[in-house]
Amino acid sequence: MWGIWLYCGLNVHKQCSKLVPSDCQPDLRRIKKVFSCDLTTLVKAHNTTRPMVVDMCIREIELRGLKSEGLYRVSGFSEHIEDVRLAFDRDGEKADISASAYADINIITGALKLYLRDLPIPVITFDLYSKFIQAAKIPNAESRLEAIHEALLQLPPAHYETLRYLMAHLKRVTTFERDNLMNAENLGIVFGPTLMQPPEQSALTTLNDMRQQKLVVQLMVEHEDVLF
């Protein structure tokens, strides 16, 4: 159920969950915050395809930040990023993340990364993590892309749509590489561990999978038009 039961009060056995109607709607009044809320739960409660945090942050970044050097690599002040998080949790889509409130675009990129990193189920879900890692290890370039594409199609709708929208944005970021110095590989380094987390966290797993995490995101950015 991808966490929905936490907010609508329905708790069912995994096998019985198949009998639950697909239009099961979480109660918006029971959702206390935006950050750290299950992705599918949030979009169902708000009747959207993607979290408004993702939409609003990307809109603001594309409005005034695409030429900013080190976009997504440079960190904003953590206190201000925390302010943005609190604003979204408190005000939702009415949160003010404009230049008048936060002149440093790195605060907005930091808030977006924080949102994605703090999801209880990562954008690339735990159960599909190994499929993406194994796909990245395939030597043949064409077969590697096919395997990533097949894995993408298995993502829950809200996760797929969020990832599709984010990759299209990151592809646009790379078109300003001369200014922002961020190519697909650099973005892969930043977003690999943000979007992908192993089901069982360990220092060894994290270290062993870093290259594949980076490559998965790099390929999704470079081949966004083919994979999505």
Distance between the termini: 24 Å
The percent of residues in helical segments reads: 55-70%
Total helix count? 12
Sheet/helix structural class: mainly alpha
CATH H-level name of the largest domain... which superfamily?
A: Rho GTPase activation protein
Major sheet description: none
Name the helix and strand elements from N-terminus to C-terminus, one letter apiece: HHHHHHHHHHHH
CATH level 1 name of the largest domain: Mainly Alpha
Topology diagram in text:
Blueprint: H1 5-8, H2 39-46, H3 52-64, H4 78-91, H5 105-117, H6 129-136, H7 141-152, H8 157-174, H9 177-180, H10 184-195, H11 203-222, H12 224-227
Provide an overview of this structure:
This protein is 57% helix and 0% strand. With 228 residues, it is an all-alpha fold. It has 2 domains: 28-120, Rho GTPase activation protein (Phosphatidylinositol 3-kinase, Chain A), CATH 1.10.555; 122-228, Phosphatidylinositol 3-kinase, Chain A (Orthogonal Bundle), CATH 1.10.555. The radius of gyration is 18 Å and the shape is globular. Residues 1-22 have low confidence and may be disordered.
